[in-house]
Design goal:
The protein is built from nine helices and three strands; from the N terminus they run βββααααααααα. By secondary structure, it is mainly alpha-helical. It has a domain of about 120 residues. Strands 2-1-3 form a three-stranded antiparallel sheet, with no helix packed on it. α3 packs across α4.
Length: about 250
């Protein structure tokens, strides 16, 4: 398998790759001013891409923006995990409308910073590991149930929601885990690892609240689940075949 910075989410001219060749038992360097680190041999198993001096400012700015965005976005979505009583007190003091407005502004600002920072970081990536090609196809398949879970969260009366309680959070778990499998840059690990950790904590906290309050989610007819599966499947297909490439820059199926 040949590795290239483009396959990790972007390339940068003048980059230098340092690869460990287990067959030769030594570290070899590959550099090309025009194509970056594309010539890492198929025997390489571990690689780190070091951005050239010209690319480092982009990477540093990108990582800073990405971290700030994750703190804002996941921070707002973690209040119920770590400070549910404080949240209730703030809503009582401010009013529900004002709280939702402030919450939305901070979350949107965080999302914008995540998108901006991730894009900048991909321009000069630091590769921690080079996933084999099959992980790309596995990730594409794992996101199918993730889309179905997202659809089930918005379809009333599904047996999926009755069984798992919070299908949207489970969908985020699957999405983040799938992308961790198939992406090995520092920005990828930070982004998808953060979302995976958040989803695990949020799901545990949400189910604990459900048990404490005696919340149960009623199950409707199987037709509701069929609707959720159909919507999720169509959305997954559209995103995988037509939207992921233009929006993200990577085509799941080549």
């Amino acid at each position: 398998m040949q590795w290239s910075p483009e396959s990790a989410g972007g390339g940068s001219a003048g980059a230098r790759a340092i690869a460990f060749d287990p067959g030769a038992g030594q570290v070899r360097r590959h550099a090309d001013a025009s194509i970056g680190a594309r010539a890492v041999p198929a025997t390489s198993r571990f690689a780190i891409l070091h951005a050239s001096p010209a690319g480092r400012p982009h990477a540093e700015i990108g990582m800073t923006l990405l971290i700030a965005g994750l703190v804002l976005f996941l921070g707002t979505h973690s209040v119920r995990i770590f400070a549910d009583a404080w949240r209730s007190a703030r809503i009582a003091a401010m009013g529900e409308g004002a709280w939702k407005g402030l919450y939305s502004v901070v979350a949107i600002a965080g999302f914008v910073l995540i998108v901006w920072g991730y894009g900048e970081a991909r321009a000069a990536p630091t590769v921690l590991y080079a996933p084999p090609l099959w992980t790309k196809h596995l990730a594409a398949l794992l996101t199918l149930p993730a889309f179905v879970l997202l659809a089930a969260a918005k379809t009333p009366g599904t047996r999926i929601k009755a069984a798992v309680g919070h299908p949207m959070v489970l969908g985020v778990k699957l999405w983040a885990f799938a992308h961790l499998l198939s992406n090995g840059t520092l920005a990828d690990v930070l982004l998808f690892g953060s979302f995976l950790a958040w989803a695990v904590l949020d799901y545990v906290a949400a189910r604990r609240r459900d048990r404490a309050a005696g919340v149960a989610y009623p199950a409707g007819p199987l037709s509701r689940d069929a609707i959720a599966i159909a919507i999720g499947g169509v959305a997954w297909l559209a995103f995988a075949l037509w939207l992921h490439g233009p929006l993200i820059g990577v085509r799941p199926f080549g």
